[in-house]
Give the backbone structure.
Amino acid sequence: MQYGLSHLKYKKIRGEIRATLDGILSSKFLMLTAIFFSALFVSRVEILKEIYPFGLALMISLINKLDTEKRFFAATGVAAGYILSFINLELLPGYLLSTLTIFILSYIKKKVNIEEKKLKIIALITVGIIIFINFALVRNVYIALLTSLLIFILCSASLFIFESVMNKLTREKKEYCLSNEEIISLCLLLSVIIAGTSGIGVFTISLTNIFAILSIIIIGYLGGAANGAIFGVVLGILVGLSVNSLGVFVVVYASIGIISGVFKDMGKYVTLISVVIVYGILLFNYKSFGFKGIELVVAGGIFIIIPNGRYTILREYFRFDKENNKDGEQVNSKIKGIYKKKLNEFSSLLGNISDILTDLNENEKLIMKNKSTAMVQKLADRVCAECQLKGNCWRREMHYTYSAFVEVLKNVELSNGELPYQLNKKCINRSKLIENAEDIVNRNMISELKKSTISEGRQVLSSQIKNMAESVEEIIDEFDVSIKIDSNFEEKIRLAMLANNIKFKDITCLRDLDGRVSIKLKGKACGGEQNCVKNILPVINGLSEKRFCVSNDGCIIDQVMKSCDITFEEMPKFHVSSYSVQKCKDGEKENGDSYRFIRNKKDKFISIVSDGMGSGPEAKRESEATVKLIEKFTKAGLSEIVAINAVNSVMAMKYKTQEKFSTLDIASLDLYNGNVEFLKVGSNESFIKRSSGDVEVIDSKSLPIGVLDKVDIDVKKKKIIDGDIIVMVSDGVLEYGDKSAEGHWVMKYLYNCKLNNPKEIALGILNEALKAENYKVKDDMTISVLKVYNIN
């Protein structure tokens, strides 16, 4: 229940975040005002004498981020900032012309199809050239070269910081929280804006100190001592450079950040009191540097006035310590535990049902021991109840009479109506004895036949339910350990896609037990433009050493929501080219063999060949049913052994009643590591032709499906490399010639074969088999050939 309350609270907070942001952004006046003054303050920050790079960097970062009106207000603010910074009038034209040039380039971007990255490089180079010319005319070439180079470097570095913040603030969806990089970038931008207020005050009160102290207290209160200290140091450096008191401002601002972070868990009031005490001590030592107590009073008052709910919203939005990720993982772990417990209970229930059915069959065996006594008693009741001599037979000679009656029942069951000698001599109801014995035996045989059928069905059902329980246990194991959310890689993909202006609704990154990553993405349907392959896939591949590809499911379109669900998975190391050829037995229209080529969800390529006993439509139905069931199980992600056991349980009853069986030959190839498993149930040999030319025989001595209650599976494991060829055949192909491991004709053919195409190899083997039998087909033939290629 606590999870439900926390989840609702979390959704409410996220809703407040979205509503707050939407409310701010919906006010056009506030937006334009914020853009103007932010640009104005940013452009006023001076790093070194006559070097003002931040305004130009901000303008370049806004290329293709805002509409023309907003970019105009930003450019106006930057220009106003340069004018109000009291720049040497001889140097002012260079900065103003650079600002105008960047604005024009951003306007051209809307009209001309040019990559954003190239346009920003052009803007940086153009700014460097303009500044160089301006300084060369006013100062000299050496100073101009050094200044233009510094501005180019500082603009490039600042552009990287501002880009991260602009991508966050200008993207349509606001539900994603800030990453550590975005938080740092936002703090740096905020530091630059606050540093830009240097020299602005009311009477003798510095607005810079008020904004700086307030922002540092808030950052420390939300993010802790480390984040508060970092923000304080960065802000102290920027403000200190503008007033030539670098060390003092770094010490004061960093101290405020540390104290506000240390006492943040004790509430706003204790935090503010602690800051007041430390600030008072620092004020006593650094009063001559312009710090005043009224500045802390104003900043502290604003800090207290801000409602706690707003701090909660900011804390959820910024997520400095990523606590929500941990909470989410804990919730996922709890939910996983609940479902695991339910599935375990269900698996245990199925196991109990299977055991009960098995115990009932054991009870039938115990009952059989008492049936002969009951049959003798019933025969005696019918024949001897009214006989005058029953006292002699059942009192004086009870042991002999009982044994004689047992012998009578056995003789009747064997269709022998003779009575034992003594019983034939003494019994006066001989004909009645024979008639009733025959009736009792016949009734018992009918009853036993029914019970045997029920018992057999119960045994098959018990085996099937047991296999179901094992399947559920396998699902539990995979559910418990095999799939984990890779939040770090997921966040990298999010940020990279946003940096490339790729819109999406949701993204989930999963990592299985083998360390393989799959990425599930939900976005707007692109209408067949293949946005996933052209734009998204290159971004994902750029973040990982492994190569990714679109899964076999492709794009799943929701026509109602106009959305697209797509999965990206790691590109396998191997690719398989396959071909299969069949030939019917002479006189038959249908082949009794069946085959399949399957690629399941675990990226295993599975080849199946099943030979139904006999030939024609009936054999076809049997083998096709076997192959279809294996296909369904493996596509669902269950192991091949579980699938074979389930198929054996399903098919066993029919095979027992008709005394027909079916073979099964499976080759399961892991496309990532090249491991291949041959699972054989009564099937023929398979062959591997190595890329080196050698040929291996994979033999088996197991029994077909349906012969035993528990299926006999022969498993052989091999390793496949690039260029290897796997050949699987039904027994119709092997009807002649030497089939020993050393002299098998198929092995000899493959050894001498120079073909590499699976189709040509399959047809070649078929032609060789037909040629050896003078083109007479004695049994159905199936040949499946797989060739492995290394693609990664």
